[in-house]
Design a protein that fits this description.
- This protein is mainly beta and 263 residues long.
- The protein has 2 helices and 14 strands; from the N terminus they run αβββαβββββββββββ.
- Strands 1-5-6-7-8-11-12-14 form an 8-stranded antiparallel β-barrel. It has a two-stranded antiparallel sheet with strand order 2-3.
- A hairpin with a 5-residue loop joins β7 and β8 (158-181).
- The radius of gyration is 24 Å and the shape is elongated.
- The two termini are 49 Å apart.
Amino acid sequence: MRKFLLCTLIFFSSTSFGQSIDDSYYSVTIGGGLTGATTNSSSSLIYDDRQNLTYEQFNNDAKNNQTMRLNFSAHAWYNKTLGFNWTMQAGLGYLDMGFRRAQNNLQDGDLIHKEIGPGKILDKTNIEKNINYDYRFHYLDIPVWFNYELYKSKDYKTRYQLTGGVAANVLIKHQLTARLDNFTIDDKDKFQINNTGYEARAFNMQVNLGFKVIHKLDKETTIIVQPIYTIHPMSVTGGQIDVMPYSVMVHAGLVLDLNKFKD
């Protein structure tokens, strides 16, 4: 019985010592990385009547020219120690998801998006002409992640944690930006397009997986670095084309000491 009580006391003492460093705290991060998407369609409805192109045909052609593009996020977080090496972090912030589609080496007479000038190339010069279409889904992001501590340094200044969780996404705006490379149409090299071809859903969910590093630089400053891989298991669009975005991002920021604001 004495051994049991002694072991219990040691366990709770060590747990309390670990939790005393940051039992609960607030933090802010900004994130940057790459976002892309998987797209699918089996619709035989007409997408472009100029060439009698169905949604399925358009998607099959377009996804061969899809690439990832840069994206951005910014979050405020509440972090809480749960015990047994687990912590929870709940956030609220902004998240940009989507993908890029390209039309490269365009020639005179080639069709482009209907809302770009006359909807086709009218230029017989030998200049290389490309268009990058950036599809953007802007979200209010509400993540709830759980972190499991894998290792902490002997001086408790650095912690390494495994991260997993989900996030709810509320659509703020969906837009398509076309950027013309090496040429202009109507003296413009950038077009904001209303008809994206994708019907964005107002609400969807993400699955997140990654890891977290917390490092105390000095008495006043603790930094956080958190690489995260994100997938949407369900389409973020309705209509004729399904879009499942994914991203690889690094979130970095600082722990906030609210005591500094108390006077």
